Amino acid sequence: MRIGIAGVGGRMGRLLIQVVAAREDAALAGGTVRPGGRVGADLGMLAGIGERGITATDQPAAMFQAAEVVIDFTNPAALATHLDLAARHGTALVIGTSGLSLEQERAIAETARTVPIVYAANFSSGVALLLALVRRAAETLGPEYDIEIVEMHHRQKIDAPSGTAIAMGRAAAAGRGITLEDHMESGRHGHTGKRRDGAIGFAALRGGQVVGEHTAIFAAATEHLTIGHRSFDRRVYAEGAVRAALWLKGKPPGLYGMEDVLGLR
Ligand SMILES: NC(=O)c1ccc[n+]([C@@H]2O[C@H](COP(=O)([O-])OP(=O)(O)OC[C@H]3O[C@@H](n4cnc5c(N)ncnc54)[C@H](OP(=O)(O)O)[C@@H]3O)[C@@H](O)[C@H]2O)c1
Question: Which of 88, 103, 124, 250 could form a disulfide with 236 if both were Cys (CB 3.0 to 4.6 A apart)?
Fold first, then answer.
């Protein structure tokens, strides 16, 4: 499978190069950097695995043409171009970029009518299972259980709550048969008044180099259920994204998630 990687200068981009290069069933088809970025840098050298003879470009069109699938862990601002190129060249996409707006998520769904796309807030297998468990718990436990979602990430993270926390909120909302948008209570501060009935609350902690910690709390007067997950190494996301890319081979157009890749639905 020929895999292109957008954002090869980034932390995820460099890990993705390592994971793809280590596999026999995958080959690097190219890599991009932001316009004016480290154009011409060898992808292997960027990833610390020695020269591979493929250099970074700021012209994504060539990479989309050469690749069967492109993995995108970059920046929300790059999404529109990547969707456009995927549709134009019939290239499958794996999208890991977080902090996308609802409108951007709709654009992904629209493009997925013509090419297969895996979009996930979190590419770890453990988190895919966590989402299924949160949904099940919300389905099983009644509205007397208040749902709170707590996440902690490294100090460099620029969006909050994390994409995974929002995905957990959506899973809980789906389990309750409600929408997250109508029930989200995030960023409490000052005189907030009492907790809204049926709210799904969020708290985001930032500090140090935490790769990712997520906990869903179902709190009733007589008991609490907590379901949590910790990532110790960002490599778990790169491995999951490459697994998703390989899974896409031969798939019809459509919008898929990690639960599809793992056969959880
Ligand atoms: N879904 C998941 O499982 C998961 C896991 C980890 C991270 N993420 C998300 O993935 C994204 C990247 O994370 P990261 O930690 O790797 O961030 P990062 O280290 O900042 O890397 C992002 C890279 O993308 C580059 N970039 C920006 N615009 C670009 C463009 N138009 N074309 C090509 N490259 C472009 C940036 O270049 P400059 O430095 O020049 O701006 C940077 O090198 C974030 O949204 C993060 O939240 C998702």
Answer: 124
Which CATH number belongs to the domain containing residue 95 in this structure?
3.40.50.720
> pTM of the entire structure?
0.87
Q: Which residue range is the domain that position 132 belongs to?
A: 125-231
Q: In whole angstroms, give the CA distance from residue 183 to residue 186.
A: 10
Nearest CA to ligand 1 atom 25: 7
- At 119-150, the pLDDT tens digits run 998 899 999 999 999 999 999 998 999 999 99
Provide the CATH number for the domain around residue 132.
3.30.360.10
- Starting at the earlier edge strand, list the strands of the sheet with 146-153: 184-186, 200-206, 146-153, 212-219, 224-231
Task: Judge contact between 106 and 83, C-beta under 8 A.
Answer: no
- d(C-alpha 28, C-alpha 43), whole Å: 9
Pocket test for ligand 1, best of 73, 124, 131, 256 (most atoms within 8 A of CB): 73
Cβ-contact 249, 1 below 8 angstroms: yes
